[in-house]
Amino acid sequence: MSTKKQLRGVLFDFNGTLFFDTDCHVKAFEKCYANRGMAVPSPQEIITNLFGLSNEVIYKEYFDSNATTEDCKRFAREKEGYYYECCLTPPFTMDYSNGARALLSYLKENNIPYCLATGAGMDNISFYNENLDLAEWFDREHIVCADDKVKCKPDPEIYEYAASKIGLKASDCIVFEDGTLGLIAANKANAGACIAIYEEGLPTPLICGAKADAVYHDLSEWKKILEEYGL
What we know:
single chain; alpha/beta; Rossmann fold; 2 domains; 6-stranded parallel beta sheet; 9 helices; about 40% helix; about 10% strand
């Protein structure tokens, strides 16, 4: 197989990419809107507009522009509480997306640099450590999250910073991302390759100018993808 370009590292979004939890996030946001007597956006609107943003940004931009820091923290606890409940309630099963474990294990075993770039906060990271053994593949030094106070997606800073954590530039890396805002962030960061990964049946994230070099509905083709970029 010919190599498209020689890349050196991998950057991952988490939610909707390594872990297919979109439905639980959507349901949690729907409850937050309903609790306030607000019109509930469609799942498409929630996915496109909110996914990739931190809870603080979401609350200030979509719920209360005058919110205090404590207001935002209360909102985060409310929304994530609904989300955790959904994740832990059958028939939902907490597991990585198809191919994710094998891909992460390959990168780790072959000393290929990789880093996580997520809009989630450390409370969620702790939840994933407890229920998905996230720490098996990502130590704190290889996670960029909302608590790091970087600009959230669609700003490119989160992917630029994640690349710097592994001694690279975003242009040296493959980015795996499911969200419209995340893909825009990766595009703006001049990522070496942008691979859209999103659950089959969900709306395409390739809107609002978001671009991807390839589209897949899980990570089962990870070997092919890595080979295409010399990894």
